[in-house]
Amino acid sequence: MESREQYPHDGDVTDNFELAGVPDAFQRLWTPHRLAYIKGGQDQVSSKDNCPFCTAPSHTDEEALIVHRGRHAFVILNLFPYNAGHLLVCPYRHVPDYTDVDAEETAEIAALTQTAMRVLRKVSAPAGFNLGMNQGTAGGAGIAAHLHQHIVPRWSGDGNFLPIIAHTKAITQTLGEVRQMVADAWPASADETSSGGPSAAAGTDEA
Ligand SMILES: [Zn+2]
C-alpha cells in the first residue's frame, strides 16, 4: 500500500488549515514536512480513512511525528504548532467528543498529558502551558471528528510583537528535530500503560 493512499493529499501541503480560534497567518513560513495533516481543514475528514489521527499510527514515528505510543492513546506533534513542542494527545479510536472516551482512555490521556508536560519542562523549560480540547467546529476544533488534547508550551514573550505585527512566527527548530528531542526525553517506564498500542513496525506501507 502506498503511503499516498493513507495521506491522499500528500505533497499538496495546505496553507488553509485552521487552528483553534486563531486565523492562522503563521504557517506561511512553515511547511517543513511533506505530510500535510489534511487539505482544507476538517471538512476533508469524512471517515477514519482520511483522518490524519487514524492514519498516523500506521506510519513510522519519524514520518508521522509521533513522540510516544501508549496502549489507548498516542502523542504526536502538531503539524502547525503555536510554539515549538506543541503536542497533541489522541486516542487511537476515532471518536469526536470527550464524553466518548471510556475510563481507560480517559486515564491514559490524562497520564500522557502529565508526562508530556514533564518531558517538555525537561527539554525546553517552558514558563507555562496551555492545555485543552476544542470540541466541535464551533469550539474551534481543526479536526473535530477525532478527539485530541492540546499541550502548548509557553514562554514569557512568546506573544511578542513579531507574530502580532508581522504575522510571522519564528520557529527555529524543524518538527523532526523537536520530535526527536521529545521522544528521546520520554521516560521508558512512563506512568501510563505503554507500548501496547498499534505500531508501524508491522505495516507494509513504508515509503
Ligand atoms: Zn480519526
From TrEMBL:
| Source organism superkingdom | Bacteria
CDD domains in the cross-refs = FHIT (cd01275)
Which PANTHER family does this UniProt record tie to the protein? AP-4-A PHOSPHORYLASE, HIT FAMILY HYDROLASE
Q: What is this protein called?
A: HIT domain-containing protein
Give the source species: Arthrobacter gandavensis
Q: Name one Pfam family in it.
A: HIT
Q: Which Gene3D superfamilies match?
A: HIT-like
Location of region: Disordered? 187-207
The short motif Histidine triad motif is annotated over 146-150
Could you confirm whether the keyword Nucleotide-binding appears in this record?
Answer: yes
The UniProt keyword set, sorted, is: Nucleotide-binding
SUPFAM superfamilies according to UniProt: HIT-like
Q: Where is the HIT domain?
A: 52-161
